[in-house]
Every structure is written in C-alpha cells, then in structure tokens.
From TrEMBL:
Keyword annotations of the record: Hydrolase, Metal-binding, Nuclease
Protein name: Deoxyribonuclease Tat-D
Any Pfam family hit: TatD_DNase
GO annotation, cellular component aspect: cytosol
Gene3D superfamilies: Metal-dependent hydrolases
Residues binding a divalent metal cation 2: H163, H189
GO MF annotation list: 3'-5'-DNA exonuclease activity; endonuclease activity; metal ion binding
Phylogenetic placement of the source organism: Eukaryota, Fungi, Dikarya, Ascomycota, Pezizomycotina
C-alpha cells in the first residue's frame, strides 16, 4: 500500500490566544505616553496569524478598557472577541465612581449584555481577587465587587475569565455557588498557583490558562505537567508575561521555532518584534514548552487547547 497522503499530511497548528491585552498603547508604538515608533498593530496581528493564531480574546480590565476591547472586536470581526469586567486591582473604580458604584455596575451590565448579544463579548472578566497587590485596591473592595460581578455574569450567562493571586480560599468560596449556575464555567487565566490549587480549580469545573508567567519556575512546570489536556487553554497575556531566558521554561526552547528578531523600541524597524513587549506570535513558544513538559506533541497540545477554548467561549465557531 505504501504511504498515503493521509499519513504524510501535517495539519497546520491553530491557536486561540485567550488572554491578549491588545488595547495596550505599546501595541501601537506608544510607551509611557511617548510615541517611540510607528503604530505596528497590523504587523503584530499578521505575525500571529502567520503562525496559526486564528482567534484573539482581548482582555477588558475596567469599563474603559472593556469598551476598547469590544471596539477592537468590532474592528476585527470573527478574529477578535472581548471580555468585559473590572480587574481586582481596579476594584476601587467602583468606590471612586463619581455617580456611585451602582452606576458603574449598571454601565458594565449594559456593555456586557449588548456586546454579548451582538457577538463581540464572549466572557465576563477579567475579574477575581489579588491579595498580592492590596495597595492598588483593598481586600474589602475586591471581595465586594468580585461578588457583584459574579452575580452579573450569572445573570447575563457569560463564562468567566478569572484572576487569582494569593487568595484561593476566598476565591473558591465566592465562586463555588455561582459556578453551579454557569453551564460554560470559566477559566483561571495566567495560572501561577500550586498543584493543589490547580486540582481544586479543575474539581470546580474550571479550565486553566497557561502563559509565560505560568512557566517561570520548576514548581510552575510541575503544575503544568499535571494539568489535564482537556482543561488547558493557552495565552500570552501580552504585552506582559513573556518567557525570559532566566525562566525554568527557557531550556525547552532550544528546538522551538524561532520568533522574529526583537530589538529595543528605539531601534524598531518594520517586521521586528520589540524587546520586553510580549506579543501573540509568542504563543507558539508557550505551546512548545507545555508539550515538552508534558511529554506530548505540540499538535496534541494545540488541538486540545483549541477545542477547550471553542467549547467554553464559542468564538464564532459555536453558538454560545
């Protein structure tokens, strides 16, 4: 019989970057309020698409950024999708709103509801708790507005895009009763917790989002090794969370497909990446490390992650 086409054909890899802060000004060449180089957002998107990144989930971190994420999803229909929510480090926005917290909550609800109905928004988030950065928003405020936003997500029936840092007890306590009312569940993004925390998240019915920050230490890698393939999703969290040479995961990149050359922002040229600015094309390296750590093929990791993301968020492939 010999080799058949079926045996020799390699399917191209397909990615969903489920956590990309595409609204950040650095993706348009603006750093700390100064224009360092021309707007290269189109190049960034083209690079991501060239390695098989077929869907972006653009993260909303407060009302303004959520509105921005929805607008980006309108600008790139069928490719970009939004999350809507207020990040725990921005929880003080509720307390400081000039018309009171109920006004902000109502605006958030209206945005999430209307943009879900028009197909732009696929998740409620980024919401959660962050006890590592209480100097940004106090614990009481984080708890109050996490709970209020969870109730909104249940009302609107959006899966969750979650953030948890050093707060697992309160995080799980508030989540548990709501998850029973959310058939699509949700995802804990940029996961850096312990193996035990990860297993509890899985038991709650949540998926785990992995990026460069999830791959920093040997302990992190051990956690990733044990995430079931049917519960893993992949992200870059760009422009942050890149895999750095000092990270435990870097040793697995020796045989990874190379990324375009990166230069300092002051030396930027068209077609180059920027040092220190993580971008979606780097999702290929995240998948490569996960595959090496788990002892499976990159194809297996990508297929599982794609299926998990589509199942949870729809992303134009399924009617959520």
């Amino acid at each position: 019989m010999g080799d058949t086409e079926t045996n020799t054909t390699i399917r191209p890899l397909k990615y969903v970057d489920i956590g990309i802060n595409l609204g950040d000004p650095v993706f348009r060449g603006n750093y700390h309020g100064k224009q360092a180089h021309e707007d290269d957002l189109a190049d960034i998107i083209e690079r991501a698409q060239s390695i098989g990144c077929a869907k972006f989930m653009v993260t909303g971190s407060d009302l303004k950024e959520s509105e921005h994420a929805v607008q980006i999803s309108k600008d790139y229909p069928g490719f970009c999708y939004a999350t809507v929510g207020v990040h725990p480090c921005q929880a003080k926005h509720f307390d400081e709103h000039p018309e009171g917290p109920s006004k902000l909550l109502a605006e958030l609800r209206d945005l999430a509801l209307s943009s879900k109905q028009s197909g732009q928004t696929v998740a409620f988030g980024e919401i959660g708790l962050d006890y590592d950065r209480l100097f940004l928003s106090p614990k009481e405020s984080q708890l109050k507005w996490f709970e209020a936003q969870l109730d909104l997500a249940v009302e609107i029936q959006l899966p969750l895009f979650l953030h948890s840092r050093a707060a697992s007890d309160d995080f799980e306590r508030l989540l548990k009763p709501r998850l029973a009312q959310l058939p699509k569940g949700g995802l804990v993004h940029s996961f850096t917790g312990t193996k035990e925390e990860m297993q509890r998240m899985i038991e709650l019915g949540l998926d785990i989002g992995v990026n460069g920050c999830s791959l920093k230490t040997e302990e992190n890698l051990e956690v990733v090794k044990h995430i079931p393939l049917d519960r893993i999703q992949i992200e870059t969290d760009g422009p942050w969370c890149e895999i750095r040479p000092s990270h435990a995961s870097a040793k697995y990149l020796t045989d990874a497909p190379p990324l375009p050359k990166a230069v300092k922002k002051e030396k930027w040229q068209k077609g180059y990446m920027v040092k220190g600015r993580n971008e979606p094309a780097a999702i290929a390296h995240v998948a490569h490390v996960i595959a090496r750590v788990k002892g499976v093929s990159v194809e297996e990791v990508c297929e599982a992650a794609w299926n998990n993301s589509i199942k949870m968020f729809g992303l134009g492939e399924l009617n959520n």
